[in-house]
Write a structure and sequence with these properties.
By secondary structure, the protein is an alpha/beta fold. It contains 13 helices and 12 strands. The protein has 2 domains: 135 residues, D-Maltodextrin-Binding Protein, domain 2 (3-Layer(aba) Sandwich), CATH 3.40.190; 152 residues, Periplasmic binding protein-like II (D-Maltodextrin-Binding Protein, domain 2). The termini are far apart.
């Protein structure tokens, strides 16, 4: 009897051991399948049937290094950092992006490029091209600067909803900001003084681009009042019938409290920065004006610019990080995300 009990005990112990082994194997096989994205997940965030979650299923960005990389620059890029870069962080958590403020002064394209030249950033984001003097300074330090265009933006001209002006030519915008035109009557509007707002030249790439390409490098007129942020400017334009301001189109076009003016290279050929028909203030915010992406991409809208990733081709990990990041932004999925962030896809 004791021999039978001993045999039964050995049999049960063997069965339990085999069961534990198979349970362990099953657990590790399932875990391996989940890590490789081959197991279907519940609906919601982990559901691979969702196109966005397919994008997040695993990190397959070519040549993307691991580590923490400082980047910075243009304030225009803020929606991309919020809505596009966060996707890359979720997709590739071992590639950590850390937005770095300048040690002094305001963040912007210029300060970002300056920090890149001073080895404070791995790469930078810019809403303007690299200047010749910036490239010359970089070459003095033994490297050059490479700009990779990844998106398209436009400059929109904001005015008060009560202002009745059909549009402005680029030359008229220049004359307003250099002080040659001071009354809306001079451009077909009411007899009303023009209140001119701008951020300062030190504010970033948008102002630098405006001075370079709209003012043809002329100085702002004495009539210009300087404000700190676009948010502040929008509030001022909303309560001043004669006010004017310029900024990145995604910051202006969808606003409810102000409107953006059509712009032309010549009088009578105005192109709006918004998709027609124009959404009136009475229908906002349930409906908002959308960017005229087709006109931006074709160049029919007169004041457009590229958005650039600026890298240092020095053969180091920072160059690899910047180029891999830029190449990822140029993929079809990322171009769609850039468009959803309010800009225009470049390809």
């Amino acid at each position: 009897m004791s021999q039978k009990n001993e045999t039964l005990s050995l049999f049960l112990a063997a069965m339990i051991t085999i069961g534990l082994i198979f349970s362990g194997l099953w657990f590790f096989m399932e875990r391996w399948a989940q890590l490789n994205g081959t197991v279907a997940k519940p609906s919601g965030i982990g559901n691979t049937d969702n196109p966005m979650n397919q994008l997040l299923s695993k990190c397959n960005v070519p040549n993307l290094p691991e580590g923490t990389f400082n980047y910075g620059g243009s304030t225009t890029w803020a929606p991309i950092r919020k809505d596009v870069d966060t996707v890359l962080q979720s997709l590739c958590p071992r590639f950590v992006l850390r937005y770095t403020q300048p040690p002094s002064g305001q963040p912007g394209s210029g300060t970002g490029i300056r920090m890149l030249i001073d080895n404070q950033l791995a790469f930078s984001q810019s809403s303007r091209s690299v200047k010749a003097e910036e490239n010359a300074e970089a070459r003095q330090k033994g490297f050059s600067l490479k700009e990779i265009p990844v998106g398209i933006d436009g400059i929109a001209i904001a005015v008060n909803h009560n202002l009745n002006v059909p549009g402005l030519t680029v030359a008229q915008v220049k004359d307003i900001y250099t002080g040659k035109i001071t009354n809306w009557q001079q451009v077909g509007g009411p007899n009303l003084p023009i209140t001119v707002y701008s951020r300062s030249k030190e504010a970033g790439g948008t102002v630098e681009f405006f001075v370079e390409n709209v003012l043809n490098k002329e100085n702002f007129g004495a009539n210009v009042s300087y404000i700190g942020t676009t948010t502040e400017a929008v509030r001022k334009v909303a309560v001043n019938n004669g006010a004017i301001y310029y900024a990145s189109a995604p910051e202006i076009v969808p606003q409810c409290t102000i409107k953006s003016l059509p712009i032309g290279r010549s009088s009578g050929q105005f192109v709006p920065p918004y998709q027609e028909p124009f959404v009136p203030q009475s229908e906002c915010p349930s409906k908002r004006n959308q960017l005229n992406s087709q006109a931006f991409r074709s160049g029919d809208y007169a004041i457009t610019r590229n958005l650039f990733v600026i890298v240092k081709p020095n053969g180091q990990t920072d160059q690899q990080a910047g180029e891999a990041y830029a190449n990822w932004l140029l993929t079809p999925q990322s171009q769609e995300l850039i468009e959803k962030a309010g800009f225009v896809r470049i390809k």
